[in-house]
Task: inverse folding
């Protein structure tokens, strides 16, 4: 974990074009799913971020060789060591829970310390364990280590307790090689879950219902190697669009999949942001007056929780009282206390709901980034603030965004990284 900070000089209009990188939340399960394949798997458009390096580090720890150059990663999972993945490794990354499904399917056993990661509310692992046990996994749980064993996994009809993203991904990865057919009801359908399914199908899996909340997975004997391009990161795309919108600049955000953000575009229109959507790009245009809206997060295809804080930051510039309702996480309004230091006077009703009255003249201040998306929100606020903003704890921003400072600087922002 590094201790870099950002120093941002605000009020610079963003202009030009910027390309979105590969999706973090798609790359993480796809890297884990590569453990299901003994032949080499070549991934392209892999984002260069801390979370991916941590994931790759865990692959090495269990004896899997990788070749990684630029955005291309080749994974050779010919043999996998039967080794407990220790706390020190998993504490950095909650997504290390994604090793449960593939290691269980491939080795018949997995031992993983309880995962860590961003501090955004309590996220239990029950949804993961319940669905894997339905496929035949035996769970030997103690307080510190998740220990799962199985013989041949068997297809089952599974109803998820909630449409959890990584739990759905785990059950998909465990069932592609199971005997028989698995039906997953109330599956998460986020773009990254879809991307994992598409990847597995390219490697020979049989998954139907991609993009819906019911997946039907016909088990196959074996997957084969191949090549796959990770989908563009819709969360990075949304973040860049919001950055452009708050500075009232004209910016082309390239290499996006517009349908991953349908509801986001709807909300932007409602707020009054001008933009033009192309096949795989969006042009953000300067807008005059922004209007307050009600913003409520929910599972895909609803408004993504991961864009709540960045979007609410734009709402500080909208006229009237906006209402924020975060329905997934109970710790995801913390950034509002940081925005308070920049002049916003949020009315935080409870851990899920808040009101923001705008427009606010944002002022540079010293703020901290409490998770990946809160960090992005701080950057967006800083771009529109009078004077200089200092953001500490940018380790979190680097965990989720590929050189966000450099990307924003390339379109006119003034962000200095201080080591
Ligand atoms: N939840 C509900 N109802 C649901 C589904 C989830 O209330 O139908 C709640 C859960 O109880 C939990 C929260 O929502 O409090 C998130 O649960 P989930 O299990 O879906 O989260 P996750 O799989 O651990 C992934 C992403 C997160 C993202 C969430 C929600 C990855 C590696 N992580 O986490 O990404 O916020 O889904 O979409 O895909 C990030 O990128 O910054 C990040 C934290």
Result:
């Amino acid at each position: 974990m590094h201790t870099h900070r950002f120093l941002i000089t605000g009020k610079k209009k963003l202009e030009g074009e910027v390309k979105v990188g590969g999706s973090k939340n798609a790359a993480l399960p796809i890297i884990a799913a590569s453990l299901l394949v003994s032949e080499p798997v070549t991934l392209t458009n892999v984002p260069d971020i801390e979370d991916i390096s941590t994931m790759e580090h865990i692959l090495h720890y269990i004896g899997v060789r990788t070749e990684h150059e630029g955005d291309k990663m080749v994974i050779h999972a010919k043999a996998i060591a039967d080794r407990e993945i220790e706390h020190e490794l998993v504490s950095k990354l909650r997504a290390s829970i994604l090793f449960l499904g593939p290691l269980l399917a491939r080795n018949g056993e997995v031992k993983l310390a309880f995962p860590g990661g961003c501090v955004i509310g309590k996220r239990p692992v029950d949804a993961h364990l319940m669905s894997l046990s339905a496929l035949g996994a035996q769970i030997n749980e103690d307080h510190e280590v998740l220990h799962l064993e199985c013989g041949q996994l068997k297809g089952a009809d599974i109803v998820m307790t909630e449409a959890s993203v990584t739990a759905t991904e785990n059950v998909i990865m465990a069932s592609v090689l199971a005997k028989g057919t698995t039906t997953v009801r109330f599956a998460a359908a986020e773009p990254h879950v879809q991307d994992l399914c598409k990847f597995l199908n390219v490697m020979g899996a049989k998954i139907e219902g991609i993009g819906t909340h019911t997946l039907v997975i016909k088990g196959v004997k074996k997957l084969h190697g191949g090549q796959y391009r990770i989908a563009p990161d819709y969360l990075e795309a949304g973040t860049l669009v919001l950055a452009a919108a708050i500075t009232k600049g004209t910016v082309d955000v390239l290499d996006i999949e517009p349908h991953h953000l349908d509801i986001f575009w709807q909300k932007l229109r409602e707020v009054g942001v001008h933009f033009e959507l192309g096949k795989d790009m969006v042009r953000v245009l300067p807008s005059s007056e922004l209007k307050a809206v009600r913003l409520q997060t929910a599972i895909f295809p609803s408004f993504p929780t991961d864009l709540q804080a960045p979007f609410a930051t734009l709402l500080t510039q909208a006229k009237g009282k906006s209402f924020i309702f975060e329905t997934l996480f109970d710790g995801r309004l913390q950034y509002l206390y940081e925005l308070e230091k920049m002049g916003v006077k949020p009315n935080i009703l409870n851990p899920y709901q808040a009101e923001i009255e705008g427009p606010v003249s944002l002022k540079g201040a010293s703020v901290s980034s409490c998770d990946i998306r809160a960090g992005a929100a701080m950057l967006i606020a800083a771009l529109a603030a009078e004077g200089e903003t200092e953001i500490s704890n940018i380790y979190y921003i680097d965990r989720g965004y590929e050189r966000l400072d450099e990307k924003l600087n390339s379109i006119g922002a003034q962000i200095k990284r201080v080591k």
